[in-house]
Amino acid sequence: MDILSFVNSKDIRDYLQEIDYKCDSMQAAWLVYQSTYKTYEEKHEAWNWIIENMPDCEMPKRRFSIARPSLHEYLKELMEYRDRYKNRIKKGKYPKPCKKMTDEEWDLYEDAFESRWFCFPTPFKEGDIVYDCHDKPHNHNCVCRGTFVLKGITNTEEDVKSRAHQGDISDMNAWGWYSDYDGIIYSEVMHNYMDLVRFTGELKGQERIQLALSNYIKGEISIELLLQSQRTLMMRDYGENGTVNWYTDEGLKLAGIADLPELTKKQKKKNRKKRKKIVKEMYGKV
């Protein structure tokens, strides 16, 4: 069985298959667990295959998960638990947790896999424009949505040292620079990095600043051109109406864009004429 087919991201799945990556038993079981595109039956078939074909191992205690002597036995219990709620789970309505659940029940509910951190290689590098495969690339209406310029992924040797025994699934992060509809750039973290795919389409409107930022990080353009690109994009669409509201007052002062002097009537009139000329050149009308 091809366990790597359970990886959600096509880019990561293809890369792992290309390098002939070999999962250990825990990694394989987790990949099946986190898959969002495989059916209920396919997941159970894969877990049974792991029990029959891959070595058993212990499941050490984690912050939200109890210690278990056997992964194989846990998977059997998990499948029995899921079978009790099969109809609900297949409809995407997992049973709701309750305060009376035992540690063992919590483990079966979600904690055993949610409480663990895994390291997988990926094909991405700093400066790539990526997005979550479960999201729409042009969706920037909320924080951490849509495309972003990759800075890093928590799958380095240092991460293995610091997270392998203490981290959980929420620590399987990628981070970088997102942009909102106004062209404002901000740094944020997404979870989980195994859902990343490379963006290959065309960036639109203000999100085109990500193209400039990506090329700057890769050393293709200068800092001057990066700053000019943002200014050009924001002025093209917004002119004086663009509002910087993401940063603190101290940050705005350090950037030189706080307490700006008010434009004179003459300057405003000149700017209006300039904008009309630009619009006419771009669209053929005012």
Task: Outline the structure in words.
This protein is of the alpha+beta class and 286 residues long. The chain has two domains: 112 residues, no CATH class; 118 residues, no CATH class. It has eleven helices and five strands. The protein has a five-stranded antiparallel β-sheet with strand order 4-3-2-1-5. The chain is elongated and about 80 Å long.
Short characterization:
This protein is of the alpha+beta class and 286 residues long. It has 11 helices and 5 strands; from the N terminus they run ααααααββαβββαααα.
Count of DSSP helices? 11
Shape: elongated
Output the structural class: alpha+beta
The residue ranges in which pLDDT falls below 50 over 5 or more consecutive positions are 239-243
Features:
286 residues, alpha+beta, 2 domains, elongated
Layout of SSEs?
Elements: H1 10-18, H2 25-34, H3 40-53, H4 71-84, H5 86-90, H6 103-114, E1 129-132, E2 148-153, H7 157-163, E3 173-179, E4 185-191, E5 196-198, H8 209-217, H9 223-237, H10 249-254, H11 265-283
Antiparallel strand pairs: 1-2, 1-5, 2-3, 3-4
Helix pairs in contact: 2-3, 3-4, 8-9
